[in-house]
Amino acid sequence: MPQNAKATNTNTKTTEDNSSIKNFKQNSDIENFYRFIHENKLRKEAKVLMAMVAKSLKKSGRKRKAKTLN
């Protein structure tokens, strides 16, 4: 029985994570941002910026993991 309880908690957390992502995408500020990019034909520029942000976050994540292991 305790294993079933853990599985239920995991499923609940996953559902909450998915709903928070959906709420983020439906936020009016985010919708306006997407609309701005689309109306001004800035998709390529936005993609480059998002890649740069993702790359910098990935690098900083590695540094944090190294610090916590030591």
Provide an overview of this structure:
The protein contains three helices and no strands. By secondary structure, the protein is mostly helical. It is flat. 0% of the residues are buried.
What is the mean pLDDT?
75
Structural class label: mainly alpha
Radius of gyration, CA atoms, in whole angstroms: 18 Å
Structure annotation, total helices: 3
Give the proportion of residues in helices: over 70%
**Amino-to-carboxy terminus distance:** 38 Å
- Number of domain units: 1
Task: State the assembly state of the protein chains.
Answer: single chain
Uncertain runs are none
Kindly estimate the percentage of residues that lie in beta strands according to DSSP: under 5%
Largest sheet: none
How many beta-strand elements? Answer: 0
Shape estimate: flat
SSE succession = HHH
